[in-house]
Amino acid sequence: MGNILFPKNSLLKRNNSNKTQYFMNQIKEIKEKSKSYLSFMIGEELFAAHVGHVNNIIEVPRITEIPDTPDFIKGAIDLRGTVLPVVDVRLKFGMAPIKITPLTCVLVLEINLGGNIISVGALVDNVHEVLEINKGQIQSSPHIRGMQSANKFIEGMVKINEQFLMILNVNKIFDSEHLHKIQDQIISTQKT
After folding, report:
1. pLDDT in tens, 153-184
2. 10-30 burial code (b ≥16 CB/10 A, e <16)
3. Is the dihedral angle over the CA atoms 16, 22, 28, 33 positive or is it negative?
4. What residue ranges do the domains of the chain occupy?
5. Is beta strand 116-124 parallel, antiparallel or unpaired with respect to 82-88?
6. CA-closest candidate to residue 50, choices 167, 142, 153
7. 7-14: long-range contacts at Cβ-Cβ below 8 A with a sequence spacing of 24 or more?
8. How confident is the model at residue 31 (pLDDT cuts 50, 70, 90)?
9. Are strands 154-160 and 163-168 parallel, antiparallel or unpaired?
């Protein structure tokens, strides 16, 4: 019965690393085709990220500060033995810093940085729901004066129940200079 999953005469029947790659490619293809978005609050505004970028949602653990990083980088956490940088998305968008409440959580996001997939934790005020959104529903977002930093991260907007939901392009939220700096800091912290 196990052979049904694999193409006829496939190397996948014999090689575990090929099986893993095959399934990872299948998962990636499903995620890319998905119309599902995770909605969440940042401040008083409703945002969403494509579920293909959301790896996990966790409660806010103890966050270790990393010296000499931008203000929006809260620090790092241990996620199953991996050091995960955590970003206060409110600060990144030029808003007031997040206040940790029982509803605050960390979205573990997969970011494409120059072809490399890395994980970053994003502090959000709370998570709402998973929504199915067709591309045709997404309107282009207006450029809002005073929110220039957030504007460049917004892919579009959707009106849901009389409220606008802003769809984020998570790959654009974190520029490569900051991510490389975070990675360097984490590596130097691990060595000491």
Report:
1. 888 999 888 889 999 988 887 665 666 666 65
2. eebeeeeeebeebeeeeeeee
3. negative
4. 36-191
5. parallel
6. 167
7. none
8. low
9. antiparallel
Determine the Cα–Cα distance for residues 143 and 151; give it in Å rounded to an integer: 6
| Domain 36-191 class in CATH | mainly beta
In order of 97, 113, 129, 150, the CA distances from 93 in angstroms are 10, 19, 22, 5
Burial of 63-78, coded b for 16+ CB within 10 Å and e otherwise, reads beebeebeebbbbbbe
pLDDT tens, position by position, 97-155: 999 999 999 999 988 877 778 889 999 999 988 998 888 888 887 665 555 555 678 88
pTM > 0.90: yes or no: no
Say what the alpha-carbon torsion angle 186, 175, 113, 69 is, to the nearest 10 degrees.
0
- The residues that bridge with 132 in the sheet, in sequence order, are 36
